[in-house]
Every structure is written in C-alpha cells, then in structure tokens.
What does this fold into?
Amino acid sequence: MPVSARFHELRDKVLAAVDFKFAEPVRLSFLTKVGGTVDPARPAVEIEAVLRVGEGKNTSVSGGNSMSWRSRIVADKAQLHIDRTTYTGPQPKQGDKVKALSRWGEPWFEVADVDDRSHTRLVLNLNEA
It folds into this structure.
C-alpha cells in the first residue's frame, strides 16, 4: 500500500490557494472516438480549473516573418490544469472538448493530449476548436 509523502498536505493547500485566485468555470464535454458524438458513458461536467491560453500571435503560413503572404494563422498553446485532489469526473481523452464558460464568446478548445503523470495536476494540452 502506498504511503503518502510528507509534503502532500502542504501541496494540497498551495493548489487550493492557486485555484482560488486563478481557476475559472469550464465545461468538459466527452466525445466518442468514432464520429465525435457525445459519449453517453462519460457525461459532460462543469468544473473550475486553471485555463492558460497563449498570446495568440499572428504567424505567416511560411513560418517566417514575411509580410508578403496573404494567409496568416493565429495559433498558440493552451492548457487546462485540473486539481487531481478535487476532480471526480471521467478521464479526459484526445478529441474531447473544453468550453471556457466565463470568457467572452465562451470559446471551445479541443483536447490534443492529456498529461496524467503529475501528482498535482491533470494537464490537458488544448488546440483551438
């Protein structure tokens, strides 16, 4: 049987303090791998978690700084950090969706991958949906 490390109580207090200041409401929508329809085995949940979205820098399609391209994209990294000690919902998977409920326009993000190796946070790496 695993024994808790001595720092777990302090870790949990720090996570709770960070979430109190920075967490925001989000909806996790769980989808099937085939067809991307709602997964009835994993109902959607609304939680509070820390959502970090990059600056949305404009980049030319060529990858350089050339202004001669007409096509430009706005792409940046986004992550959702979920406190493992309080989350009781289904395990998120690639292809699931996240909706930022308190942001203007309530933007959607798609889960690109899930980092579940941290003992503090479940980290969802996101793409704009």
